[in-house]
Amino acid sequence: MDQNYGYVNPAPQNGSPLSRKMLIVIGGSIFAIILAIILMVSTGSNSTSSQAQHLILRMESLQTILSDNETTRHLKNQELSNLVASFSLTQTTDINDLKIALSSQLPEKIDEKILANETDTTTASTIEEAYLKNKLDAVYAEVLTKKIASLQALIAELYGKTKDQKLKQTLESVNENLRKTGKQIDELSISN
C-alpha cells in the first residue's frame, strides 16, 4: 500500500487574505452600486421635471382662460366676474413664483409629448357652446372648478416627490390660493 494513501495535502497558506483579483471585483461592485444609486436619483428628478412641466403648462392654460376678455366680458354674475379678475392676477403671480422655484427642474424647451398632452382642445368650444345656450356663468364656474382640482392633484403629487423646501413652500402657497378660489366659486349662487 502507498504510504501517502489517506493523507491530504494541507491548503496553501497565502500571506494576504485578499488577492488582487478579489480586490478588483469588490471595487467594481462598489462602483456599480454607486452608479446605480446616482441613476435612480437622476431618474427621480426627471420625474419631477416632467411633473413640473405639466404643472406650469396647466397653470398657463388656466391663465389663458382667465384672461380671455372675449369670454369674461360676457359673464353676467358680477361676483364671478370679480372673482375671475382677482384670480387672474393671483394666477399670474403664482406662475411666476413657480417658474422661479422650478427653474432647476424645467428644461429650456418643454417636452413635445408633455406639450401635446397638456394642450387644451375642448375648453374653448365648451365655453363657446355654453355662451350660445345662455349658460356661460354656470359652465365657466364648472370649468374653473375642474381646472383647480386638476392643479391641486398635480401639486400634491409634486409636493410628495420633492425635497426642495423652497419649492414645497411655493407649492403650499399656490395650493392655498387655489383652495381659496375654489371655495369662493363653490359659494357663488349662479342662476343660469
Protein described:
- The model has no long low-confidence stretch (mean pLDDT 84).
- Helix 1 runs antiparallel to helix 3, helix 1 (20-66) packs antiparallel against helix 6 and helix 3 (78-101) runs antiparallel to helix 7.
- The chain is rod-shaped, with a radius of gyration of 30 Å.
- The longest helix has 47 residues, at 20-66.
- It contains seven helices and no strands.
- It has a single domain (49-187), classed as Ferritin.
- Helices cover 73% and strands 0% of the residues.
- With 192 residues, it is mainly alpha-helical.
- It starts with 19 loop residues before the first helix and ends in a 5-residue tail after the last helix.
Question: Which key terms come to mind for this protein?
Answer:
0% strand, 192 residues, mainly alpha, 7 helices, Ferritin
CA(first)-CA(last) distance: 113 Å
Going by helix content, strand content and strand pairing, the class is mainly alpha
For this structure, the CATH topology is Ferritin
| Poorly predicted tracts of residues | none
The level 1 CATH classification is: Mainly Alpha
Tally of domains: 1
What form results from the Cα inertia axes? rod-shaped
Give the overall average pLDDT.
84
Instruction: Characterize the biggest β-sheet.
Output: none
Radius of gyration: 30 Å
The number of E-state strands comes to 0
Helix content: over 70%
Estimated share of beta-strand residues: under 5%
Number of helical segments with 4 or more residues: 7
Helix and strand element order: HHHHHHH
The CATH superfamily turns out to be: Ferritin, core subunit, four-helix bundle
| Secondary-structure arrangement, i.e. CATH architecture | Up-down Bundle
